[in-house]
Structures are given as structure tokens and as C-alpha cells.
Amino acid sequence: MKPQLVKCGHEEYSEIDALRSSDLKVFIESPQKFEDVCIKKMYPRNATDSMRMGTILHQFILENKSQDGIDYAVWTGSSRSGAKWLHFIDSCEANGIPYLIKNSSKDELGLIELQVKAILKNKEAVRLIEGTAVREQAIVWEQDGVKCKALIDMMSADGTITDLKTSADPSEKKFFWSMDDYGYHYSAAFYEMGRDAYWGSDRVYPFYWIVVSNSGWIHCRVWQLQDELRDIAKYHIKAKLAHYKHCRESGIWEDHELNKSQVLHATNYYLEKNGINLIQGESNG
Fold first, then answer.
1. Would you give per-residue pLDDT tens digits along the chain (285 residues)?
2. 172 DSSP assignment
């Protein structure tokens, strides 16, 4: 198929019949989980609070909208339960708008306003945002015989991709942990594969994350994907796409790793968690 660049919202994007990075990350975790979650849909993939608030933050930053220009509802109740809450949620879903909570114990709108200020205070983040030529557009392409799709936050005219993220802590070490836990490097490499398919370029472009905290001190950092990690992620993705294609064609989504006993290699995790230097035999705590 010929690669396509499609301007669409999140709902239209979800309707495109193709493999997206979040689905691929489920498959990387376990083919059997992919079958249960993505094919049989045994477990609803409900939006988390962070995802819900991220949708509104994206409108502020990527669509350059003011507070008055964004459609959202505000829940002022003390708890998310009862008939009024159910009616509120039904109304939001019917109108296709996200909601924010603002009560005596939680002020999500206030948090988003702080996040916007923190992002616009970061000069490198502003440079990347102002240099964006393509915002929230989907690339649909075929990668190694698999139809794929990627919804890109920001891309400059020269092909540089920037992704907007929220994190409990945007510092280097903590964001690395988030990247590893959520597979952000896989998403980055996957987006770049789509871009390269559409533009027909093998040139290496930088990939940036604009990361803003969502708790504590609200501040923003900009991180660039390391070239070596990009190459490793792309190599891994290609191998997994070949495995995915085999499973799809055979209809067998067996996970061999789940069906055998393995040694729990927990030593390194234990040492790091407890601040122990194995060489010196000392605790850093």
C-alpha cells in the first residue's frame, strides 16, 4: 500500500484498521496477552486519569487553544459515584468531550494551567513547538507486510518528531524508568519508521520528548532519544513484526515464555532498590 498522511482526531484514528504502537507493545509483552486484549477484547482499555488530562493538555499545546476554546466538562462533586456522576459521565461520552475534576481535594484544571506555563517557560520546548509543521496527524503505512499506523504529536518540516509526555518526575533517571516501563522508545522508533516510509528517507533525525511533571514541582524538561537506543528498538520491532505476522496468519497466539518455568533474575533490581553497591558491599541508603 502507498503510505498516507491523514488529518484525524483520536476517534477517527482508532477506527483505522492497522497496528498501532500501543498494540505492538502489548504483543512485545506477550502474544497471548495481545490476543486477549486487542483481538478478543476481554479486558476494556479504559482511559486513565493521566490519559484523560493529557488529551486536554494536548489541545492547549498542540492546537494552541485558550481555555475558552477547549470543550470539556467540570465535575465538582466530592466523589465519582452515584446517579449524578453516572449522568455526568454519560453526557460527556455522548458529546465526545473529556472532563476535569475541581473540588476541595483536587484541581485538575489548575494543574493543567501550571503544566502549560511550565512548558512555555522552557525555551527548548518552545523552539520545538514553534518549529512544528505537522500536528496530530496519522501516518498509515505497510511495514514488512504489516499495515501500521502512528498518530504523531509534532513534526517539523525537516522530519524531526516531538512527542508530548507527562510524568511524575521528568528528571533523567526517573523518565528513563518511565520510558522503559511504558516502552516510549518503541513508540518513538515506530513513529520514525512510519515517517521514513512516507517520506522515503533513511536519514537519521533527532526525536524529542517534551516532558512535564504532573505532581509536586511542576516543571518541564526536553529529552532526546539516544541514537543507539533507537537502533535497538527498530531492530526489536522488525523482529516482533515478523513474529506478529506469523501469529496473525496462523491464528495461533501462543506465548512460549508463559508455558515454562524460569529463573527469576531479581538480583540487580533488589540491589538498586536497596541502594547496595555489590562491589564495595555498602549500602547507599
1. 889 988 887 778 889 999 999 999 999 999 999 999 999 999 887 778 888 888 889 888 887 655 555 678 889 998 999 999 999 999 988 888 888 898 888 899 899 999 999 999 999 999 999 998 888 889 999 999 999 999 999 999 888 999 999 999 999 999 999 999 999 999 999 999 999 998 877 677 899 999 999 999 999 999 999 999 999 999 999 999 999 999 999 999 988 777 778 777 667 767 776 766 655 444 444
2. H
- Rounded to an integer, what distance in angstroms lies between the CA atom of residue 202 and that of residue 122? 31
**CATH classification number, 4-43+128-250, choose in 3.40.720.10, 3.90.420.10, 3.40.50.1000, 3.90.320.10:** 3.90.320.10
Q: Report d(CA 137, CA 10) in Å as an integer.
A: 10
What is the pTM (predicted TM-score) of this model?
A: 0.84
- How buried is residue 215: exposed, middle or buried, by Cβ count under 10 Å (0-12/13-18/19+)? exposed
Which grid cell sits at 124? 527548548
- Tell me how many degrees the CA angle 194-203-126 measures, rounded to the nearest 5: 75
Task: Give the distance from CA 1 to its chain's centroid.
Answer: 26
- Give the pairing of strands 207-213 and 161-167: parallel
Integer Cα distance of 136 and 65 in angstroms:
14
Q: Residue 24 corresponds to which cell in the numbers above?
A: 505492538
Reduced DSSP (H G I as helix, E B as strand, rest coil) percent helix, strand, coil of the chain, to 5: 50, 20, 30
Q: How far is Cα 171 from Cα 168, in angstroms, rounded to an integer? A: 9
Cα separation, 187 vs 11, in Å, equals 19
Cell reading at 262 = 524460569
